[in-house]
Amino acid sequence: MRPRVEGSPRTAPHPGTAVRIGEDLFEVMTETCSAGREWIYGLEPWKAGNVTRIAVEWGDAAEKDFLAGLRRERIRTRKKNLALGGQALLGFLPRPFQERLAQTLEFDPGRATLYSALLETLAAGPPAFLFFLQIFGTPGGRFGPVIPSGLGFFALAGAIEGIVRLVINLSSGEAVGSLPLSLLGLRFDKGPRDDVMSDEFLPAGDVLEVLSPTPKAWWLKAGGITCGGDSFLLIRSAAEGRRFRYVFRKGGSGFPETDAVLERERNIAADRAYALAPLWGFLPRADQEAAAFYGRTKTRLWVRGSIAFNLLLSFSIVALDMVRIGAGGFAWWTLVRFLFGLALLGESVIRLLRHLQTGDVSGSFLGVLIKPLFSLAVQAGPSGAGKPRPPRPGPESSGR
């Protein structure tokens, strides 16, 4: 049941849900939630001039059915929240097991693989890098703490597997489990399941409601959509738990065309852009604006993070190499590394000054290392070439 939407200079009023109690018809005017988590609806007699689009029959039998359905929904929601909260761990399971589990827990195996691969890479990456330096590092001492051989080889294998799983997932959108768990030989029959990354379109006369797993920044920017040849004006949007509801009414013109396949691709790209958002601060401005198309991207925050990271890295390189050169440990690779550190330090200082003075969101030359990942995650879509890409350099626009 939806409350009445009052009119504005740009939108027409929209009546609330019609509720029939006995022989009387009422309109839902207000919707509030008390401190005891009870929903309270304010009703008024139905006005004769309103068009009845959605009507709800209410009484003792309807209330019993509603409470029974509410209990089932709460059980289903708890299972769903458990799966979503632990999807980074479920993503390590073999692909058939993930797909079988998704039939009851309603999580997306591709998303679970993405988050588990990121978790594995971030957890194993630092010790693997230190262990790599211990084996192939330059003469003159070790860089950082000493990593035991057993832990080092384990971390190196985990980092490599995490990167491989991440690349496979970004390029194909498929679930990829961890190799050690795949060797357990778990086998499950594949069966149909709901695609939780797709939108749910709920038309009702002149009203269209859409439930989405991700926020639709591009819909909010445009103010409406064109679906099935009809134009719909966005009149309300709200977050409901882990889903997002958008309510449209027929009207307006010039809105961007949309369909279920396109929106599913954008949902996946938006989820990836959100998960990998800290990396986008290293990219050029055009790529950052392309990532911002999907929303939930704090561009200035990640640019500042990239500048801080580069300053810390470059200062460490320059300071340590100056100590080595002063101690007589000069070599050609030391000079190359020292010049790289100086270049990165100079760039970081210039980026920082520009950002503080004008709010500039320029990228770093280290962005060339992030660009392939960005192309797989955001630009190319979940299945490689041929998928829809966000407009460049910024969000799409439309007329009213």
How is this structure best described in words?
The protein is an alpha+beta fold and 400 residues long. The protein folds into 4 domains: 18-58, no CATH class; 83-182; 200-258, no CATH class; 272-379. 49% of the residues lie in helices and 15% in strands. The chain has 12 helices and 9 strands. The chain has helices at residues 60-85, 87-90, 95-105, 109-136, 149-172, 179-182, 217-222, 260-275, 285-292, 299-326, 332-358, 367-379; strands at residues 18-21, 24-33, 39-45, 55-58, 200-204, 207-212, 224-227, 230-240, 243-250. The strands form 2 sheets. Strands 5-6-9-8-7 form a 5-stranded antiparallel beta sheet. A hairpin with a 2-residue loop joins strand 1 and strand 2 (24-33). Helix 4 (109-136) packs across helix 5. It is elongated. The two termini are 29 Å apart. The relative contact order is 0.09. Residues 138-142, 185-193, 380-389 and 391-400 have low confidence and may be disordered.
Q: How are the SSEs placed, and which strands pair?
A:
Elements: E1 18-21, E2 24-33, E3 39-45, E4 55-58, H1 60-85, H2 87-90, H3 95-105, H4 109-136, H5 149-172, H6 179-182, E5 200-204, E6 207-212, H7 217-222, E7 224-227, E8 230-240, E9 243-250, H8 260-275, H9 285-292, H10 299-326, H11 332-358, H12 367-379
Parallel strand pairs: 1-4
Antiparallel strand pairs: 1-2, 2-3, 5-6, 6-9, 7-8, 8-9
Helix pairs in contact: 4-5, 8-12, 10-11
